Amino acid sequence: DALTDFIRRLPKAELHMHVEGSLEPEMMFDLARRNRIALPFPNVEAVRAAYSFSRLQDFLDIYYQGAAVLRTEEDFHDLALAYFRRAAADGAVRCEIFFDPQTHTDRGLPFGVAIEGLLSGMAAAETELGLSTGLILCFLRHLPEDAALDTLKAAEPWLDRLLGVGLDSSEAGFPPSGFQKVFKAAGERGLKRVAHAGEEGPPAYVAEALDLLKVDRIDHGNRALEDDDLTARLVREGQVLTVCPLSNLKLCGVPSLEVHPLKRMLQLGLKATVNSDDPAYFGGYLLDNWVQTARAVGLEREHLVTLARNSLEGAFWTEAEGAPHL
Ligand code: ES4
Ligand code: ZN
């Protein structure tokens, strides 16, 4: 229909998408067969039926389990390329994807397997689809900072091919303050910094991400709205929020899309963007997130253009690329 076509044609960037979260049940079974791994599910329907979550941790437990079918560079290549094809069909022009190396190294895969496979999938997307892509390494915050420091060290040979670092996994009880050393080291190596904050954690975690980790974007940021002074600061500083409406719905951060704060964020002057987070688990890719949220909260064309512009301006373009204008 007209709304979907309008949004598809808007040049957009996706800035918050965990590539392990784009693993569709069909590919999970294909990779399990290819790698001769037994799955604890009889079929794809049973996998999909398990995707019912009441909070972030319910999802994470299943997401880390699903990632176990990823074993070879080819697996990571195929995973990333399948996502990029969907994103390109949705009208994305730029995709900055997250990956969780510790999920793979902790089960014995060499660091290079995941990153080389993803970089190869990104190269294929650039030539085959004309997409601009980037890679962000996320540290798992439920593990100690020393493990994050070891991960940054393991990434050393590939730092020139990384856009930046992020912080994800279980938020409550794992504040940004625990990761100051590794974020400082990443900044000194020329990497951009982002962190999940205010998804389930309190507004204070959003302030910590800015003040202590010096992040360039906030992933989610929803709970910042509970603090008027913090909200005013985010507006004043033009901080980009990578908001994920279907993720918020599936993880029960909002009771329905109709009451999602995206429109309120725009009305307040926050630099919000729309993203899919873990599209295979949360029931929608980039365009699904845009269209369903636009309908549910009643976004006008001018809001949609602002969201697209925010995504292009919030992307970490290299100097050679430069940001396109909308
Ligand atoms: C995640 Cl939705 C979400 N939150 C925190 N960490 C994550 N890793 C993958 N998806
Ligand atoms: Zn996320």
Automatic annotation (TrEMBL):
Catalytic-site annotation from UniProt: E199 (proton donor)
Residue stretches making up the Adenosine deaminase domain: 11-321
Cofactor section: Zn(2+)
GO annotation terms (biological process): adenine catabolic process; hypoxanthine salvage; nucleotide metabolic process
Organism superkingdom: Bacteria
Binding site for Zn(2+): H16, H18, H196, D277
InterPro entries named in the record: A_deaminase_dom, ADE, Ado/ade_deaminase, Metal_Hydrolase
Gene3D superfamilies tied to this protein: Metal-dependent hydrolases (3.20.20.140)
The UniProt record lists the keyword Acetylation: no
GO molecular function: adenine deaminase activity; zinc ion binding
Keywords: Hydrolase, Metal-binding, Nucleotide metabolism, Zinc
Keyword Metal-binding: yes
Site (Important for catalytic activity): H220
Chemical reaction(s) catalysed: adenine + H2O + H(+) = hypoxanthine + NH4(+)
Family the entry assigns: Belongs to the metallo-dependent hydrolases superfamily. Adenosine and AMP deaminases family. Adenine deaminase type 2 subfamily.
Function: Catalyzes the hydrolytic deamination of adenine to hypoxanthine. Plays an important role in the purine salvage pathway and in nitrogen catabolism.
Protein name: Adenine deaminase
